Q: What sequence folds into this?
C-alpha cells in the first residue's frame, strides 16, 4: 500500500512540474502510426478528378437549351455531392485520430526549460504533417461541395427561367404545315445528330452481340422479359396469397392486396431494367450520350409503370370486392383499357423525345415532339372522359350511390378543363404550355393515386394494430393496461396524423415533382421545403422529430402516472383536507405539462433566443384576444397557491351559491343544490366579493324561523314550546344556546323569531324543515293556532 501511494505521488509530481507532460509522454510508448487504424488516402489526383467532373457538369448545364435537358445533370450533381460527403466522412475519423495522437504528445516544450527527445519531436512533426494534409483535403472537399451546392441552386434558377420562357413561347399552330415540317423533313444537323446516336447504339450492340457473348446477352434479355411478364404475375400471386392467408380479414387485407399488386409490378420492373442495363454495360460502360439517354429512359419507364400499376391496384376489375375507391363496376370497366394505352404510348413518345434531348437536336424538333405528345394524350383522354361521363350519367339516372361522389366529379371536371386548355393552346401555338398541362395532369394522377393507396394502407394498419378484436390490439391492451376506448382514441389520432402528413407530402410532391422526377429528387425537394430556412432559423432538425414525439408521449404518461399515484396513494395518507389535495394535484399537473412542453421543444433543438418573434406575436395576441384567457389562467394559479377557496367549500358569488367541485386552469366549477354546474371564470373569484361559508372549517349554520301568533296567546307558553322543540332536535347545538326573540307587534298578531345553531351550513335547510314540522305538530296538540293576516278570508 505504501509503495502504491509513493508511485501515485511521483506521478502527480511529474504532471505538476514544468514540462511534466513531456516527461510523462517520453516514458510512455510512442504512438505508432502502424498500430492505428488504416488511413484513407485521397490524393491530389483524386481531387483533380473531382474538379474535372464538376467542370464537366457545369459545361453540360451551360449547354442545355430546354427544361428537360437539365434533369439528368441535376441528378449527377446530387450524386457528386454524395460522393464528396462520402470521402469527407471517411477522412473525419482520421482527422480525429491524428488530433488525439497530437494531444497525447502535447505541445513542444520550451527549449530553455526542458529538452525533448528527438524521436518524440520527429513523431510530432510527422503527425502534424499528416494532420495538415488531411485538413487541406477536407477543406478542398468542402469547397467542392459548396460549389456543387451553388450549382444546384443555379440549376433551379435556370430551370425556372427556361420553364417560364417555354410556357410563354408561341410557335406555329398544329394546323400549320410549318409546325410539322421539322418532323417530316429534318434539318441536316438534326439528321447528323440522329445518325451519331444510332452509330453509338450500333457500337454498343456490336460489343454486346460479339461472338462468345451472344449466349449471355440472350439469357439476360430473356430473364429481363421473364421478370417483366411472368415474374410480375408470379410475384403478384405470391403476395396475394400472403395477404389472403396471413392478413386478418377486413379492410387491412383489402388495402394490402392493392398495395401488393402495385409493389409486385414496380419490383419486377426494376429487376428487369437492371438486367437490361447489365447486359449492355457488363464489358464496357456506356458513352456519355447513351448514359444520359439510359437515365432518362429509366425515369420514363418508371412513370409509365406507375400509371399501369396504380390503375390495376385501384380499379381491381378482376376482383371488385378488393376495390378501395367507392367506384361502380361499370365505371371501373370503362376506365380499364386506357391506363395501359396511355402508358405504352407515353413510353414510346417520351423515349423519342429523350433521344432528341440526349443528342441535342434543334428546338424545332423538340417543340414538334411536344406537340405530338400533347395531341396523343388528348386523343386518349378525351374518349376516356366521354365514356366515363356517359357511364356516370347512366348511373345517375338509375340513382346509383357511386355516381354521386363529389370527389369523383371534381376530378372529372378538372380533367375536362385541362383537356380544353391543352387543345386551345395547341390551336393557338402555345405547344409547350399544352404539353406542360398534359404532363401535369398525368403527374397529378400518379401522385394522388399513389398517396391515396398509402393513406388507405396506413389507416387500415392503425385500425388493425389498435383494435381489441385482433391479436395486436389485445397485446397492446394487456401490456399497457388500456381500455377499448383508449385504444380507439389512439388509433384515430395516429390515423388522422398519418393521413394529414401524407396529404401534406402529396401537395408538396405535386409542386416539386413531375414526370421524369426520380425518387431521390423528390426526397431532396420535399426535405428542402420541410427542412427549409424557416425551420433552420429555429434550429429544428427533421431527424429530431422522433425524439420530440417520444419525449412528449413519455412525459405525458409519466405525469398521468404520478398524478394517479398522488391522488390514490400518497395524498390520501396525509393530514391535508381533500380540497388541499385536489389543489396540489392540479398544480402538479400544470407544472408537469409545462415542463414536458419545454423538454419537447428542447428535443427539437429549438433555441429560446430564436423564439423572440414568437414571444412578440404572443404579447400582441395577449394584449387583444388572449387577455382574458391569460388573466383567468393566472387567477387559477393564485387560487391553487393562496387558496382563498378550495375544492369542497360552500361559496356564494353574484347570486350563485354552491359547492366548489373543481378548480381548472381557466374556470372553476360550482355545483348547486339541484346538482347542476355553474362555470365561473377564475378572475371573478379573485376580483369580486365572495362569501366562503366553510372557510376555516369552523363555520356554523343558523336555523331561524319567524312565526306570527294571535294577540291573545300566552307568550311564555309559546316560548317554552319553541325552545323545547329546538333543544330536542339532534342537529341543534347546545352552545351557542337557542333563543326566542320578540320581533314585531301589529294588529294582525305577535311575531316571534326562534333561532338555533347547527354544526354546518349545509344542514340548515333540512333542519329548519324538520323543526317546522315538529313545531306545527306541537302547536296543534296544545291548541295554539297561528295568526291569520287581516286580508285573509
A:
Amino acid at each position: 500500500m505504501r509503495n502504491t501511494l509513493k508511485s501515485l505521488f511521483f506521478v502527480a509530481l511529474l504532471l505538476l512540474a514544468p514540462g511534466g507532460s513531456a516527461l510523462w509522454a517520453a516514458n510512455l510508448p510512442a504512438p505508432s502510426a502502424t498500430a492505428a487504424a488504416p488511413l484513407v488516402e485521397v490524393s491530389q489526383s483524386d481531387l483533380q478528378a473531382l474538379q474535372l467532373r464538376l467542370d464537366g457538369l457545369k459545361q453540360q448545364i451551360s449547354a442545355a437549351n430546354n427544361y428537360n435537358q437539365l434533369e439528368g445533370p441535376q441528378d449527377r450533381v446530387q450524386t457528386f455531392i454524395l460522393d464528396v460527403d462520402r470521402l469527407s466522412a471517411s477522412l473525419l475519423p482520421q482527422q480525429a485520430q491524428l488530433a488525439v495522437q497530437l494531444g497525447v504528445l502535447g505541445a513542444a516544450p520550451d527549449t530553455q526549460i526542458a529538452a525533448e527527445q528527438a524521436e518524440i519531436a520527429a513523431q510530432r512533426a510527422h503527425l502534424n504533417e499528416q494532420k495538415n494534409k488531411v485538413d487541406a483535403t477536407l477543406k478542398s472537399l468542402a469547397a467542392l461541395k459548396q460549389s456543387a451546392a451553388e450549382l444546384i441552386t443555379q440549376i433551379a434558377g435556370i430551370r425556372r427561367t427556361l420553364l417560364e420562357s417555354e410556357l410563354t413561347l408561341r410557335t406555329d399552330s398544329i394546323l400549320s404545315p410549318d409546325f410539322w415540317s421539322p418532323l417530316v423533313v429534318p434539318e441536316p444537323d438534326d439528321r447528323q445528330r440522329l445518325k451519331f446516336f444510332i452509330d453509338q447504339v450500333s457500337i454498343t450492340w456490336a460489343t454486346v452481340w460479339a461472338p462468345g457473348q451472344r449466349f449471355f446477352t440472350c439469357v439476360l434479355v430473356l430473364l429481363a422479359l421473364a421478370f417483366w411478364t411472368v415474374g410480375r404475375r408470379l410475384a403478384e400471386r405470391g403476395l396475394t396469397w400472403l395477404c389472403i392467408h396471413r392478413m386478418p380479414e377486413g379492410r387491412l387485407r383489402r388495402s394490402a392486396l392493392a398495395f401488393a399488386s402495385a409493389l409486385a409490378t414496380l419490383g419486377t420492373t426494376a429487376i428487369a431494367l437492371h438486367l437490361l442495363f447489365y447486359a449492355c454495360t457488363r464489358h464496357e460502360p456506356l458513352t456519355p450520350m447513351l448514359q444520359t439517354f439510359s437515365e432518362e429512359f429509366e425515369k420514363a419507364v418508371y412513370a409509365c409503370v406507375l400509371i399501369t400499376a396504380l390503375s390495376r391496384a385501384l380499379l381491381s376489375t378482376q376482383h371488385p370486392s378488393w376495390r378501395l375507391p367507392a367506384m361502380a363496376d361499370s365505371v371501373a370497366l370503362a376506365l380499364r383499357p386506357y391506363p395501359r394505352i396511355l402508358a405504352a404510348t407515353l413510353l414510346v413518345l417520351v423515349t423519342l423525345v429523350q433521344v432528341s434531348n440526349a443528342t441535342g437536336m434543334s428546338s424545332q424538333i423538340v417543340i414538334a415532339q411536344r406537340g405530338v405528345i400533347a395531341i396523343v394524350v388528348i386523343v386518349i383522354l378525351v374518349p376516356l372522359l366521354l365514356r366515363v361521363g356517359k357511364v356516370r350519367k347512366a348511373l345517375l339516372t338509375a340513382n346509383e350511390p357511386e355516381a354521386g361522389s363529389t370527389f369523383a366529379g371534381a376530378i372529372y371536371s378538372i380533367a375536362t378543363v385541362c383537356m380544353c386548355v391543352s387543345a386551345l393552346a395547341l390551336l393557338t401555338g402555345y405547344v409547350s404550355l399544352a404539353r406542360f398541362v398534359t404532363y401535369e395532369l398525368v403527374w397529378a394522377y400518379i401522385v394522388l393515386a399513389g398517396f391515396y393507396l398509402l393513406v388507405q394502407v396506413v389507416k387500415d394498419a392503425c385500425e388493425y394494430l389498435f383494435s381489441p378484436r385482433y391479436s395486436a390490439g389485445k397485446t397492446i391492451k394487456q401490456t399497457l393496461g388500456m381500455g377499448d376506448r383508449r385504444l380507439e382514441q389512439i388509433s384515430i389520432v395516429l390515423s388522422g396524423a398519418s393521413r394529414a402528413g401524407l396529404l401534406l407530402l402529396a401537395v408538396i410532391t405535386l409542386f416539386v415533382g413531375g414526370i421524369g422526377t426520380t425518387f431521390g429528387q423528390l426526397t431532396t425537394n420535399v426535405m428542402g421545403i420541410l427542412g427549409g430556412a424557416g425551420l433552420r432559423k429555429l434550429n429544428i432538425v427533421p431527424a429530431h422529430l422522433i425524439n420530440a414525439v417520444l419525449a412528449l408521449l413519455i412525459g405525458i404518461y409519466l405525469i398521468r402516472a404520478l398524478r394517479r399515484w398522488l391522488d390514490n396513494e400518497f395524498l390520501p395518507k396525509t393530514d391535508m383536507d381533500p380540497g388541499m389535495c385536489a389543489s396540489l394535484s392540479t398544480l402538479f399537473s400544470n407544472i408537469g405539462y409545462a415542463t414536458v412542453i419545454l423538454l419537447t421543444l428542447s428535443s427539437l433543438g429549438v433555441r429560446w433566443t430564436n423564439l423572440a418573434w414568437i414571444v412578440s406575436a404572443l404579447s400582441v395576441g395577449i394584449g387583444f384576444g388572449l387577455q382574458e384567457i391569460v388573466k383567468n389562467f393566472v387567477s387559477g394559479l393564485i387560487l391553487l397557491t393562496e387558496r382563498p377557496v378550495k375544492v369542497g367549500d360552500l361559496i356564494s358569488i353574484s347570486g350563485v351559491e354552491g359547492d366548489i367541485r373543481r378548480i381548472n386552469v381557466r374556470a372553476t366549477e360550482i355545483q348547486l343544490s339541484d346538482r347542476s354546474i355553474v362555470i365561473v371564470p377564475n378572475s371573478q373569484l379573485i376580483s369580486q366579493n365572495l362569501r366562503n361559508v366553510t372557510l376555516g372549517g369552523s363555520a356554523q349554520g343558523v336555523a331561524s324561523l319567524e312565526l306570527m301568533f294571535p294577540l291573545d296567546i300566552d307568550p311564555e307558553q309559546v316560548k317554552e314550546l319553541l325552545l323545547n322543540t329546538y333543544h330536542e332536535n339532534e342537529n341543534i347545538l347546545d352552545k351557542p344556546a337557542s333563543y326566542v326573540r320578540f320581533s314585531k307587534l301589529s294588529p294582525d298578531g305577535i311575531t316571534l323569531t326562534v333561532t338555533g345553531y347547527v354544526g354546518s351550513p349545509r344542514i340548515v335547510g333540512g333542519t329548519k324543515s324538520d323543526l317546522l314540522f315538529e313545531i306545527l305538530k306541537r302547536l296543534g296538540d296544545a291548541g295554539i293556532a297561528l295568526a291569520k293576516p287581516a286580508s285573509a278570508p
